[in-house]
Amino acid sequence: MRLSGIGEFGLIKKLRDMCSGGPPGLLAGIGDDAAAVRTGNRNILITSDMMIEGVHFDLSFTTFYQLGYKFLAVNISDIFAMGGRPGYFFASLGIPRSFRAADIEELYTGIKKIADESGVTVAGGDTCASESGLVLSGTLTGEAKKVIKRSGAKEGDGIFVTDTLGDSAMGLHLLKKRRRRIRSFSSPAPRIKLMKRHLMPAPRPAENLSAITSMIDVSDGLLADLSHICDESRVGAVIHRDRIPVSAELAGIAESLNIDPVELALKGGEDYALLFTAPPDIRTGAFRIGGITGKGRFIIDEKGGKAAFKPEGYEHFR
């Protein structure tokens, strides 16, 4: 079967089945945001992410500084999604021969900016020539007192998200129409804010980690990522459409473009907010958008209508 038939998530399932097992020290492997390994009395996290020119980024509207910042940000988000704090970053680059040394220096300036903000040490990597565009591959380590997986959600838990959703998808839409780089985000204009949300995501850890039962970062879209939690935890979910948090900037621009902002929030992806489950009375600054059930996956609309939802969002190979 072609990859277009099984999609990215079907492929990951097949690979996980092939690589099942492992020593007792492997606490989490394929199928979570990061691997978790128990070493002595420490839980070590390891995540790896790739970014490929023409698939994950477009240099016609992305500066190398912004790309470097995002490159590390998406890895940090994975460590946060496992309940950890980031540590050491390794960046491997496939670089076209036509690039300038200054381009890669600018890329690393962006990496160093968010590394310094997040307490990450850039510790190594690799470089080689690429014949088909810029290729970035990053590995980030971390450490967690409590490893939070996708598989711990329980019936009766609340479903929470740590930030507004849909901004990145709208930002990408605006950037594609603009097709030129933005080097300064000093303007308070709503469009600028939305484009920055896509170009330079700013992941933040969740609060009250000890009470969280499962977690994932919203990279593929809320419906797709919530479905991952449901699959791994073998539970159902109900979410409320009118509780999905959207920013004022997204609501205003979406209205002017006749686009449904909640659809972007549900399916857009690349927001890098954290989606988690926890007892409904947890003390947190996150938005509660629904609850975990025994089975079924439903979304309740503003009029109380109930409809099943599918894991719609971004998926490679589809």
Which descriptors would you attach to this protein?
318 residues, 60s Ribosomal Protein L30, Chain: A, Phosphoribosyl-aminoimidazole Synthetase, Chain A, domain 2, six-stranded mixed sheet, 32% helix
Please give a quick description of this structure.
The chain is of the alpha+beta class.
How is this structure best described in words?
By secondary structure, this protein is of the alpha+beta class. It contains 8 helices and 13 strands. It has a 7-stranded mixed sheet with strand order 8-10-7-11-9-12-13, with helices on both faces. Helix 2 (about 65-80) runs parallel beside helix 3 (about 100-120) and helix 4 (about 165-180) crosses helix 5. The protein starts with a helix and ends in a 10-residue tail after the last strand. The protein folds into 2 domains: about 5-145, PurM-like, N-terminal domain (60s Ribosomal Protein L30, Chain: A); about 160-310, Phosphoribosyl-aminoimidazole Synthetase, Chain A, domain 2. The relative contact order is 0.16. The chain is globular, with a radius of gyration of 19 Å.
Shape: globular
Distance between the termini: 13 Å
Q: How many separate helices?
A: 8
What is the CATH class designation of the largest domain?
Alpha Beta
Coarse structural class: alpha+beta
Radius of gyration: 19 Å
Q: Give average pLDDT, whole number.
A: 94
Q: Can you give the helix content as a percent range?
A: 25-40%
Low-confidence regions = none
Instruction: Provide the spatial order of strands within the biggest beta sheet.
Output: 8-10-7-11-9-12-13
What's the main sheet like?
7 strands, mixed
Number of domains: 2
Strand content: 25-35%
In CATH terms, what is the fold-level topology of the largest domain?
A: Phosphoribosyl-aminoimidazole Synthetase, Chain A, domain 2
The count of β-strands is 13
CATH superfamily of the largest domain, by name, is: PurM-like C-terminal domain
Compressed to H and E, one letter per element, the order equals HEEEHEHEEEHHEHEHHEEEE
| CATH architecture call of the largest domain | Alpha-Beta Complex
